[in-house]
Write the structure tokens for this entry.
Amino acid sequence: MYTKLNRIAEIAKENPNMQFTSLMHLIDKEMLLNCHKELKPKKAAGIDEVTKAEYENNLDRNIENLLERMKTLKYKPKPVRRTYIPKVGSNKKRPLGIPSYEDKIVQLAINKVISSIYEQDFLDSSFGFRANRSAHDAIKILDVYLSRRNINFVVDADIKGFFDNVDHKWMMKFLQHRIKDKNLLRYIGRFLNAGVLEDGKFYKAYNGTPQGGLVSPTLGNIYLHYVLDLWFEKVVRKWCKGEAYIVRYADDFVCCFQYESDAQAFYRTLKKRLAKFNLEIAEDKTKIVYFGKKAYFDRKFGRIQKNHQPKTFDFLGFTHYCSCRQNGSFRVKRKTSSKKFRASLKKVKDWIRLNMHTSIEILMKNLNRKLLGYFRYYGVTDNSISLNKFRDCVQRILYKILNRRSQVKSLNWDKYTLFKRIHKTQNYKIYVNIFELRKEISYIMQMVI
């Protein structure tokens, strides 16, 4: 299976304009079985209430039946079951779709096929949901642009409800640039139009990618590849008077410009560009920031008024701000954004309350796992103060909640200090060096410097 996909990837890379007419034969029994094995077992079931364990009882028969229905075009995806999860940093809730288990298998198989093609087309500015590329890599490249290039203005943009507003007609047109297999396109179209089941009511999907679907991130990347990435590279950068760069992670992106006129012109044309493809900018979350080396020294030496001081901007959970090294030279630093800090703290607090009556050993073991995950993401260069503050806040929350395990206050601060020596809380450290790029993207560094 992987040999065939690698061959497709090689052909796609060697022939950027080639259209693939026969791809459905790649989705065979072997691929479907592998997709079944890759899916995680403890996941919520869709509207058919079938879990991985139940599907596995008659695995060969189920896979053969599924493959037969796909070959005869009788397979139709079921509507996704909609549920709501808390939105990070807000009192609102985010809709989440849960596909049926069989649909997850097919989506994963389709995702493998289209990813092998489009991974060769995606530009270096795209980082979200791609192999060997992470949010940390996006931040590292952004740091190179801000620190080592002539950047003075940053457009911090946000697309309003991107995954809910993807236009199906444009999506299919974009796919047809590379894929001419009618059967594969037909199944992707069926997934896009599968609809949603909420509280027993069916809602048809006119826009958006399959909510919660395994193919959604790749489809989103394909959509923005044509709408944003190629447009910025082939059109925007050509009419800019100075330097211009973009860094995108899924639907979050930041654009860097040398001149304010270029930044303002881009902001105006961006609205029109997105509107053409049924997308809209969240204007309350989009801004042009005077940012960079010139902005920092203008503020330092009083060459600008206070209301024109360089502001900060948030990207991928970090607040980026201007600062300097010990020798006085300029550099960009980052810390955990206040919004993400509060949201993560509330999440930990709610979890501790929910598990407050479990044994101390199990409670601390699981809590430390959560803290380790937090520190591994936010443990980047210059963020030690925020990490230490987060750990202290968690310890204070733990102290308060442990005192509520019974009606009598059982802990004072001295006892809690002894408790911390026995049951140590996960310590933080810097896991990610912003100034080190992995081999997979080191060539981008060479192009930028």
